[in-house]
Specification:
Length: about 240
């Protein structure tokens, strides 16, 4: 793999267990002025990230050992560097989960080097110029959710939610109108290693409805989609 010696744009960590993909990404990033380090599995990715302090992370999801989603969760607790997920899994929910747990973009394989570089540049521009708070507030009807402050207001009234309840509401608020199954909600909020009862989602939904003053019999915001799951929408 070619790599710049100076790394004028800093260090990029490429995590992919397919050598030809890692090489392709590494060459593209080197040409953009990055010093490139690589890892081929999840545990190695965490180790290399701690060693190199990357300014950009390109992360495959289908990794041996530690799943790429779990790697993303762990990295996001340790670094604010932009993370671009690259994956052969192009399902919309996989994309939502990836973005919800901290990725800045999600690129489905196969892709061209030109497309990757364009997306990479866009991610770096956003990380430099976008005030973080702009992406961390959602107003849906009379419900205001602020992720930075972890605050919820309904028509100006403060609402208290437990941590998981807030995380669930924030997921709904960020994807207004999207129908999530219980399994998808568990993956995004509880994590892929959750071994409890999937019906815990129903319990949390009931608590959120009660806190919002959203009656289960005739909900205004948090709706049950029978046979599928739940969605969050503003009242008509």
């Amino acid at each position: 793999m070619k790599a710049t010696t100076v790394g004028a744009r800093g260090c990029a960590l490429v995590v992919d267990d397919e050598p030809h993909v890692a090489e392709l990404l590494g060459e593209a990033l080197s040409a953009e002025g990055f010093r490139v380090v690589t890892a081929a599995d999840g545990l190695a990715a965490l180790r290399r990230a701690r060693e190199s302090g990357p300014d950009l992370i390109v992360l495959d999801i289908g990794l041996p050992g530690l799943d790429g989603f779990e790697v993303c969760r762990a990295l996001r607790k340790e670094t604010s560097a932009p993370i671009i997920v690259v994956s052969a899994r192009g399902d919309e929910v996989d994309k939502i989960v990836g973005l919800e747990i901290g990725a800045d973009d999600y690129l489905s394989k196969p892709f061209s080097p030109r497309e990757f570089i364009a997306r990479m540049r866009a991610v770096l521009r956003r990380s430099r110029v976008e005030p973080p708070s702009l992406a961390k507030v959602r107003q849906i009807g009379e419900v205001n959710v602020n992720a930075d402050r972890r605050e919820v207001f309904v028509a100006g009234r403060a609402v208290r939610l437990k941590p998981r309840e807030f995380d669930l509401l924030w997921l709904f608020a960020r994807h207004e109108g999207h129908v999530f199954t219980r399994d998808q909600l568990i993956e995004a909020v509880w994590g892929f290693d959750f071994e409890g009862d999937p019906r815990t989602v129903d319990v949390h939904v009931r608590r959120i409805r009660r806190a919002l003053g959203d009656p289960a019999a005739h909900p205004r915001y948090l709706h049950t989609v029978f046979g599928l799951g739940y969605k969050f929408t503003a009242p008509d």
